[in-house]
Amino acid sequence: MSSITQLKELPKALQEFQSRFHACGLDGNNAFQKFEFTSLKATLLAVQPATALGLSHSFTTHPIGIDSLVLRLDVFHESGESFRSEFPIQLTGPKKTKDGSIGPIGPRSMQDIGGDLTYAKKYLLWGAFGLANADDADPDKADGPTEARGQTPPKKTLPLKKSVTPKEASPEAQPVAFLDDKRKERIAATLKTHPGKDQIIADFRAKYLPTLLPKAKVTPSHIQLDEHGDFLEPLLGITNAA
Fold this sequence. Notes:
By secondary structure, the chain is α+β, with helices and mostly antiparallel strands. The protein is 35% helix and 19% strand. It is built from eight helices and seven strands. The chain has helices at 9-20, 40-47, 110-129, 134-137, 145-149, 181-193, 197-208, 226-236; strands at 28-30, 35-37, 55-64, 68-77, 82-90, 92-96, 102-107. A three-stranded antiparallel beta sheet has the order 3-4-5. Strands 1-2 form a two-stranded antiparallel sheet. A two-stranded antiparallel ribbon has the order 6-7. A hairpin with a 5-residue loop joins strand 6 and strand 7. The protein is globular. The termini are far apart.
């Protein structure tokens, strides 16, 4: 792992990414607590354009004794440079009894640990790629461990200020609907051999990827959402998307 002060190409790529992208947006809604949040799906979608700049990342977990582990994020650049960030996760803790009181300390459930891992992945990515998110506006409303464990939320909450991406023209954020695998594969296969492929890709880029670098190619990985499918299928002559 390189020290951040020794890196040259990776910071340049991050600088280019951050000059074009700054926020994840909101795609989740907690009906019980009445707030919107940034999901892991939205976070991963927000950092995906970094791949066009030669950036990639991976997560690994590393046990520390029997009571905790570390979630490790490594960010890589095609030059061979990388940097690392870590987030601790507790494997043991006090348990909540049926009457709502706090019981003795013991092993935490996989559901609890999974919730913390999801929470940690988002925060590591937000920090590494310099992205704003819903939790920056009101940390008490983060969709982190408390929500994942199903614990009772506080009765009073503050209004949530949205983190708006450049694409969000409306003040009301809409839930993100992702394409199912079969539909995405059908679109990708049809596009590959379609005679009007170049123009369709150009139209798709102009509508959904206006900030994509000119030299970066549009790939099937950019076709992520239901609205992408709704746009492409008529142009490709796909009439049965079921």
